[in-house]
Amino acid sequence: MEAHDAVDRTAFPAGARTAEPSAAWLAAAADDPAQAYTEWGERGVALLPLGRRFDAVRIPEVLVRAALRAHGTVDGPMVLDPGNGMYYALVPPQSTETWACAFGACLGRGAHLGVPHPSRLGPPGAHWVVPPCAHEPSVLATARIVRELIELGRREVEGAAAVPREQCGWCKEETGRPVKVGLIHGGSGGGGDVHACPGCVAAHRLMALADHPADSDGTPRRVPGRS
């Protein structure tokens, strides 16, 4: 009988039975697998050593979310820790030896990771975004795939930062797709541009400044038509 066979599983949430193969595989990374089960039962998270069964790549939440918005995929087990705003992608052990990406840290031997029980799929606390495969828990993301996800997120974040944001003169919200609809003349501020968000341009039938007639003084205009 293995050490974890004697653990009382009544403390685990529904779905723990189907997640058992993954739990057993993860717990085997510890010196004492039974201790991992004890921690899962008490807190839902077990502190496991890295570099044995898996390493982990720590990725800022903003990069993962940006990559997913750009239709990137998470190809392998991944944990989110809302407490520190970090995602952790599980990759094969010794990935630290060849890791080369400044925007994500690869953690291996000598480090530990708070690993949720495989049935813990949502908050509160650390939880799986993509849990280990129940039938093949040893299938991990490759370091290359994780690097590609990080790079996609970085490009998306840097691209969004490069887009000028302006305040809409109508709804007063900032927009990353400002439409110049007029000019501000003189005054102590020296003048400037009047912008509107696409929603207000449509709702108020605002005319883009580039479409104003030649004699326009820059005062915002509405597109001619029915009221």
Low-pLDDT segments? 1-14
Give the terminus-to-terminus CA distance: 80 Å
Radius of gyration: 26 Å
Structural class label: alpha+beta
Give the ordered list of helices and strands: HHEEHEEEEEHEEEEH
User: What percentage of residues falls in helices of 4 or more residues?
Assistant: 10-25%
What kind of assembly state do the chains in view correspond to? single chain
As for the number of domains, it is 2
Number of E-state strands: 11
Mean pLDDT: 87
In percent terms, what proportion of residues is strand? 15-25%
Main β-sheet description = 5 strands, antiparallel
Main β-sheet, spatial strand arrangement = 5-2-4-3-7
Report the principal-axis shape: elongated
- Put simply, the count of helices is 5
What is the topology?
Elements: H1 20-27, H2 33-43, E1 45-49, E2 55-60, H3 61-69, E3 78-81, E4 86-91, E5 105-107, E6 112-116, E7 127-130, H4 143-162, E8 166-167, E9 174-175, E10 179-184, E11 192-196, H5 198-203
Antiparallel strand pairs: 1-6, 2-4, 2-5, 3-4, 3-7, 8-9, 10-11
Helix pairs in contact: 3-4
Protein name: DNA primase/polymerase bifunctional N-terminal domain-containing protein
